[in-house]
Every structure is written in structure tokens, then in C-alpha cells.
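User: Thanks for the earlier help. One more: OsmC family peroxiredoxin. Can you show the sequence and predicted structure together?

Assistant: Of course, both are below.
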Amino acid sequence: MGISRHATAHWDGDFKSGRGTLGTPQSGLLSGTRYGFNSRFGQEKGTNPEELIAAAHAGCFAMALSANLTEAGFPPETIDARAEVDLSMEGGPTLSQIRLKVEAKVPGIDETRFRAVADDTKRNCPVSKALSAVPISMEATLAG
């Protein structure tokens, strides 16, 4: 048995002057959250698909890295993950690159072992797998 999650989107109007709202009815975290052309391609307040993909990837990666480090015998104290998602306009809009940046405080682990666990996590966290058509790079550092 799997787990199913969903989100909703509503859009009014044309591409450039229209606007939409996003929702996550199961958690209620997003409710009527604005998005549109100017929040995606400009600086207007609101979210955009790339930001949401980045949040999902950073969150999934941090959780998966914690699980993998713990399983390897090195439970982490802290993990700070950042995902940067690039949208290229060359040849039409496409996600062109994702950069993961992670810093973790992990007692007792050496740099080589940490890097191996982080690399495995980058390849195998569920969101990384879903985004495998996009090149994903990673900077992983140990804190302290």
C-alpha cells in the first residue's frame, strides 16, 4: 500500500495577465497561495512551480539523508539542505539544472563516508528519482 498526496491549482485568465492559486487540502499548508506570470518570471510576491519543486527536493533530500546516515550508524544532529532549480528559456521553458547544497553536523563520521552516503541519497531520494531528467549536482559539507 502506498501513500497518496495531492495539491490543487486554479487559473483565471490568459498566460501573462492571468493568475492562479495553489492549495494543499490535505495539510492545509497552502490555501489560495498566489502564483502567476510575474511571480514566476518576475519579482511579484507569490510562489511558482520551480520554488515548490525546490522545496520538495530539499525536504525530501534532508529526510532521506537523515535516514541513510542513521542506518549507517551515524545519526545526524542537524542537516540544512537547499535546492536551487533553474528554469531555462532557451528553446522553450525547461528545468535545466538543480543544485543541491547540504551542510550536516554528523558526530563520528569522516568526510569520505559522509560524501558516499550523501551521493547515494542524491541518487535515490524519491524526489531526485522523479527529477532524474534534470541534471542534479551537489555540494555536501560537514559542519563543525
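User: Great, one quick takeaway?

Assistant: The mean pLDDT is 96.
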